[in-house]
Structure prediction request, 396 residues.
Amino acid sequence: MSRVQQVTVLGATGSIGLSTLDVIARHPERYQAFALSGFTRLVELQALCVKHRPRYAVVADAAAGEALQAALQQVGLPTRVLVGEGGLCEVAAHPEVDAVMAAIVGAAGLKPTLAAVEAGKKVLLANKEALVMSGDLFIQAVRRSGAVLLPIDSEHNAIFQCLPGDYARGLGAVGVRRILLTASGGPFRETPLAELEQVSPEQACAHPNWSMGRKISVDSASMMNKGLELIEACWLFDARPSQVEVVIHPQSVIHSLVDYVDGSVLAQLGNPDMRTPIAHALAWPQRIDSGVAPLDLFAVARLDFQRPDEQRFPCLRLARQAAEAGGSAPALLNAANEVAVAAFLERRIRFPEIARIIDEVLNLAPVAAVENLDAVLVADARARVLAGEWLSRHGL
Ligand code: NAD
Ligand code: MG
Prediction:
């Protein structure tokens, strides 16, 4: 590699952002943090700026921006603080940036991620919601700009590693029969169904294998995460929903598999630590140390597999339904889920009501064609209104 790669980390204060900075710090001769963004944890963002000395930091609003700028100046850092969505888009598309880690959670990451794509960057995609919402528009933008899109989601990164380099010719053309998308089943895989009415946000966020942000932890508990990942896989690998089978694999050691027509099934294995897919994508097509311990198969000892139960996990069924409906359905699904998960985390609704809210929104909102970003934003806003109406009707 000829020079140090400049990396923008959107969502630097989150779980993926911190893991990304951990990998970057292991390879100062290869990578430099160019810009870091944070939304709430400003003290942590300040500490990250001191450690990584980025050219830019981005925060939510002017008040936070002034406070951070003053604090950074006081410690003699030249980092410039930008604010809001405009600031995020600026550091995502900046001409000096080589790679952008898209690790903002939810719909808030859509425009900055698209800005990186449109600027033709190497885009490391953790923010699955952005791709779920905008699907075809996102992939068209990748093709138009020549951006290099690399999946960070561990399953999609695994699938990417198990596919041949020319998979863009089509799954059929490269001999793929189906994609096997693994899922841990989350903390409620075996909880008696009646008890799900009473589970708390803390229980939902206590994932057995992965340490993650709160929203994706709840999504993992409801298996909406796997539903979003099903849609993500369809867009990334040009697959039909019927070509993606979800397999519960409680140990989270196999991160996904590709089943070929000759009967070969290729899998990618590793410890459940996001620094592996992050290091893979940062260095691709090379390999670098990620800091992840080698996999000890003797300690793992066994690998189990189960079929998912859609009665237990209705979100999975709803996501498949949205994937098959196409158009604005995934954007509606995603927005309804974001509202419902936030309400669950605020203890305003019970866990099973997440799926009930999404179901109602999908039933009430008409599915429209998505020809431009406005259509995506209209669907997103409509679903948020409908989900809000569900909450008010229930006195919340
Ligand atoms: P997190 O909650 O730990 O971090 C989210 C980041 O987004 C934080 O830096 C936060 O400041 C920022 N953010 C939140 N709301 C924002 C807003 N409105 N505007 C701007 N910035 C905002 O989440 P995470 O677990 O790191 O997940 C990030 C993304 O990566 C999600 O889309 C998630 O689905 C995906 N992902 C995460 C994991 C994981 O292991 N954590 C695995 C696969 C995919
Ligand atoms: Mg995943």
About this structure: The mean pLDDT is 97. The domain at 326-396 is CATH 1.10.1740.10 (Rna Polymerase Sigma Factor; Chain: A).
